[in-house]
Design goal:
Alpha-Beta Plaits, 3 domains, 8 helices
Length: 275
């Protein structure tokens, strides 16, 4: 997704004026002046094709995702540290990393500000179904499971279908009743059917989730460091410490988020793309 749009400066000026009034400013001395600038921000958002599997919830190292249910999508909260692990873990690529860029050229006659939203490609972890088994002896909301399956691997079928397949469930099938069936060749192991099931024992999923694939590293300028300890205090996973005045970075623990880089007051820490 790549989207660009503009915002009229007069509308922006009006919004800033209204905000100044909210801050107990009467607005009489208000002067709107904007110099040339460019700002970038990363946004992580859940797309409508979310299948409610909550794989992202389990993968998030800081508990920043509210779980999905049958009625709503998963939700990225303000706790997000932009580590991008949910983006590369979602089995159906329903979580997007978007770069938001705002540009203003600073010219006096400029009457608009330009915004652009660009989808950023991320490496994707392996999420693979190794085996999946249905317990036909229990009651469950099978229709919900079928409705949320992103690959149509989960279907509801009549007795005749099972007979043609030569597949014999562990119960006697009635002629006019529908029963769940999983095509293992189509199943991607997302776990949506397991997560949405009313009965915890209805479906057993055995799957493989591969290692995180980092596309960035942390660049540390030791000479610029002022030993303020803000990086250590704000790292959510304890991956960075100051020991005897030196920044010690644990590559294995680090989740490549923005907490240390955003809090460093002298710009001694930067996330850099791996070439």
């Amino acid at each position: 997704m790549n989207v660009s749009f503009i915002k009229q400066m007069k509308n922006l000026e009006r919004e800033v004026l209204l905000k100044s009034v909210e801050l107990d400013d009467d607005g009489d001395d208000f002067q709107f002046e904007l110099n040339e600038f460019k700002a970038e921000e990363e946004i992580i958002a859940v797309a409508p094709k979310c299948v409610r599997c909550n794989t992202c919830v389990d993968a998030c190292p800081v508990g920043a995702i509210e779980p999905a249910n049958i009625f709503r999508l998963a939700k990225i909260t303000d706790k997000c540290v932009k580590c991008e692990i949910c983006v590369q873990t979602c089995p159906v690529s329903a979580i997007k990393l978007i770069k938001n860029v705002v540009v203003y050229n600073g010219e006096e006659d400029a009457d608009f500000m330009e915004y652009s939203l660009n989808n950023v490609r991320c490496p994707h972890r392996v999420v693979r179904m190794d085996d999946i088994v249905i317990d036909y002896s229990v009651d469950n909301n099978w229709q919900d499971c079928a409705d949320l399956c992103p690959t149509n691997a989960f279907t509801l079928e009549f007795k005749e279908f099972f007979e043609k397949k030569g597949f014999a469930p562990s119960i006697d099938l009635e002629e006019d009743a529908l029963y769940p069936y999983i095509n293992k060749k189509l199943c991607i192991g997302c776990g949506a059917c397991v997560e949405i099931s009313n009965n915890d024992n209805a479906i057993t999923l055995d799957r493989t989730i591969g290692p995180i694939l980092h596309s960035r590293n942390l660049d540390i300028n030791h000479e610029s460091c002022v030993n303020c300890f803000l990086c250590e205090e704000n790292c959510p996973v304890g991956a960075i410490q100051l020991v005897d005045g030196e920044v010690i970075w644990d590559d294995d623990k680090c989740i490549r988020c923005v907490e240390c880089t955003n809090h460093c007051p002298v710009g001694a820490l930067h996330r850099v793309d791996i070439e």
